[in-house]
Design a protein that fits this description.
By secondary structure, the chain is of the alpha/beta class. The protein has 11 helices and 12 strands. About 40% of the residues lie in helices and about 15% in strands.
């Protein structure tokens, strides 16, 4: 016979059925918190598969419109655009041209789908022939010489219709430089999403193949953050906020949930996380080999990021997650 004992608190009382479990959930997610990254390349009628990112494509500005129609039906209306130009040079000059790939895509998309929210990546790595995020100097990147070019790029995106700019270069002082340029250009109300804690990570590999942005020499460790560091992210966030950042981002997401939590606890600004290409590719590959349940992995990893404190999630799984949310499989 089982011995009787007095157990007042029983956590399982709140786990007994689906309705009760849903009622007491601490973390709730919504399609409105999802942002879908898109690769835009020059040309026409381009919908080019990306081998390292199965299920993702490079679009030309015209086929981007087809994809936006599909996304709207899925309930995803927030996108992050990355440009892939035809011509590259040492300083990435096509990044700020009026008829550049992102500028052209923005004007066409805003006209056809004004209800979408368009965030643009501001960096030079996709536009430079050497693949670095700024002007090279002595085997690294010249921080201060890069800032005016980033500011010109951000302003050109704003003029083409961007709703938000997101500098991912990790140059010191870039937020203040962009804020002053945008304000002087008449865009004082345009928000800046800062890639505050962008770590020098191995998880960017598929993205670099997709965007053609792998460095031709060296690496990015002199300007992206060292993954051993935690307090530095809090320091960097404070600097970005002082310079005018409106939102903060942590990238990658899953290996840096502690950083998401730290920034969400320390600052009143919204914190977003980017579930990057390598995280996406790992789930795709493991599911394809039958090692994990794909849907369960997508849902569980997304919730873990929101649970850590993210207010928004940039993910290649956004359309599927929106569907799972509508169907009540995640919520």
């Amino acid at each position: 016979m089982m011995q009787e004992f007095d157990l007042i608190q029983r956590s399982r009382r709140l786990r007994g059925n689906p309705v009760l479990r849903e009622l007491v959930r601490e973390t709730r997610v919504s399609p409105s918190a999802l942002i879908y990254p898109l690769f835009i390349r020059e040309g026409q009628r381009v919908r080019e598969p990306i081998p390292s990112l199965e299920g993702q494509y490079r679009y030309s500005p015209d086929t981007l419109l087809w994809e936006l129609e599909t996304l709207e039906k899925a309930g995803v209306t927030r996108v992050l655009l990355f440009g892939i130009p035809q011509e590259k040079d040492a300083c990435g000059s096509s990044a700020w041209q009026e008829n550049g790939v992102i500028q052209t895509a923005l004007r066409e998309a805003k006209q056809r789908f004004p209800q979408f929210f368009y965030i643009t990546d501001v960096c030079l790595c996709e536009y430079t022939e050497h693949g670095h995020c700024g002007i090279p100097c002595g085997g690294t990147v010249d921080n201060d010489a890069t800032l005016p070019l980033l500011a010109k790029t951000a302003l050109s995106h704003a003029q083409a219709g961007a709703d938000m700019v997101a500098p991912s270069d990790m140059m010191d002082g870039r937020i203040g430089f962009l804020r002053r340029e945008l304000d002087a250009g008449g865009f004082s109300s345009l928000p800046i999403l800062s890639y505050t804690a962008k770590y020098a990570s191995c998880f960017y590999g598929p993205f670099r193949e997709a965007a053609g942005s792998a460095p031709a020499f060296g690496d990015r460790r002199s300007y992206q953050m060292d993954y051993h560091n935690r307090r530095e992210a809090v320091k960097k966030a404070g600097q970005d906020i002082a310079q005018g950042a409106d939102l903060l981002m942590v990238k990658p997401a899953l290996p840096y949930l502690d950083i998401v939590s730290d920034l969400a606890a320390a600052f009143p600004l919204p914190v977003l996380a980017y579930q990057v290409s390598g995280e996406y590719a790992m789930i795709q590959a493991a599911a394809k080999n039958g090692w994990i349940d794909r849907e369960a992995a997508i849902c569980e990893t997304a919730v873990s990021i929101f649970r850590a404190g993210a207010g928004g999630l940039i993910t290649y799984f956004a359309p599927e997650l929106a569907g799972y949310m509508r169907e009540g499989r995640i919520g």
